[in-house]
Specification:
Layout: H1 2-19, E1 26-30, H2 33-37, E2 44-47, E3 52-56, H3 62-81, H4 94-97, H5 99-113, H6 119-129, H7 136-152, H8 174-190
Parallel strand pairs: 1-3
Antiparallel strand pairs: 2-3
Helix pairs in contact: 1-3, 3-5, 5-7
Amino acid sequence: MTEVEGFVNKFYPYAQERLGIDRPVTIILRSDSENAKKILGKTGYYDPEYNEVVIYVDDRHPKDILRSISHELIHHAQNCRGDLASDGETDLGYAQKDDHMRKMEIEAYLLSNGDDLMVFRDFEDNLKNGSNLMSEHTKEDLQKKIREIVEETPAVQQPTQQPVPQAPEPRVSDKEWYLRSLYHKLAQKWSK
């Protein structure tokens, strides 16, 4: 864990600047051997009331722990922006029941380790290459893109019992195609 803590100490200032975090956060690395035995055990969570990130560490690769920290730090950034609802429920299924909280999860997924916009991956590549991959202009473009995605993500629709045959989709703009494609990628990854 000492090595992980060393990386967290390097990663946090990077994430703080990149995400515009303006309040301190406590990062807790928690050991829970019973949780580690569960296939669908907890990996971590963010507590907005106490500004705490809690990450479960038993039987996990250090890089996976760091990705979880990245994801939860994005929730902290959302809280700093005032985007996390104070009454937002985070019980089982909240990301399927609450459209706003679903958008918060989509943003955290995309920014932390998604296919297109990656806070931890950029940090990792910066360390390995000794370079600054993200110019200020690029950072602003990425933040704008995430805002667009989060604001335009369609509401969650519960599947019907029997699929209804659909007519071929009409031709759509590149932006609409990108958003649909991104939404389908996320749906596939989250449903595994």
